[in-house]
Predict the 3D structure of the following.
Amino acid sequence: MSRICILGAGAWGTALAAAFVRQGHDVRMWGRNSGTCDEISRLHTNKAYIGDARLPEKLRATPDMADALEKADIVLFVAPAQSTGEVARQTADHLPSGALLIACAKGIDNRTGQTQSEVIAAQLPDHVVGVLSGPSFADDVVRGLPTALTLAMPEQEMAQSLARELSGDAIRLYASDDTVGVQIGGSLKNVMAIAVGICRGGGMGASAEAALITRGYAELVRLGVAMGARAETLMGLSGLGDLVLTCSSELSRNFSYGIAVGRGQDVSGLRLAEGVHTVSIANRIAEQHNISCPVMHTAGLVLSGGMSAEEARAALMSRPIKRESPQTAD
């Protein structure tokens, strides 16, 4: 079994840590907050992020980066996407030379336009960097409910070997070598979930939501392919699968955020929704590639205050009548 270090003590990091401990791996977590780390290690809970869920007694968390990384075979970066570069820099002096690095946060760096694996590789160029993503809620994973994810590495054989090693009764991993596609699917679906949430918040009904999900998915594929993803990857778990899950439950922070925006509620106290950070850079990338992304563009206008939620709903459902094509219709 592997020695796994998980960087990030939020909901997703805690859920992955619990799952891998149950599968027999030696897991140590790192978190910025010493109180949270102490709660995980002593009380076997993380109430701020996963409520009353009970964590394995063998799980340990520490605010000491060197301690967390000691003898790690695999390092999972699970801190919020916009802080990945900072966390990677902090690991540099403590990272074992042969450790495999896995990006787990979903988002595009809103300063550089880099994917998470690119952000990590820029700071730690001597290490192999992969990606873990797919349709998953932390609440399900921490409870041991079955979840399927995509594990992408630069080489397919490496991905398959690692997927076999890390899969268990609750988490089943599917191997891929399309690291770009896996990340673009996971990042852009957050933006689409906010847009669909705005629709839900305005009470537009399930039929309108289905139309918006379908059109948003077409945008996701168009932009993803332009960025180097394979279309078939975006048809899988980390694209369509993640989009469907995220747009179907208020357990999704992005969907819930969109619903609140659509209802005109104050969102200042809501938890981080990565799509809010991703939408502006994603729209800039779409412009650079001359890709039409009206759903994403409209979501960006609403989140930046350039359009009201009511105006957005009207705009999204009154696009010009065109021939439908899954890859080109907008």
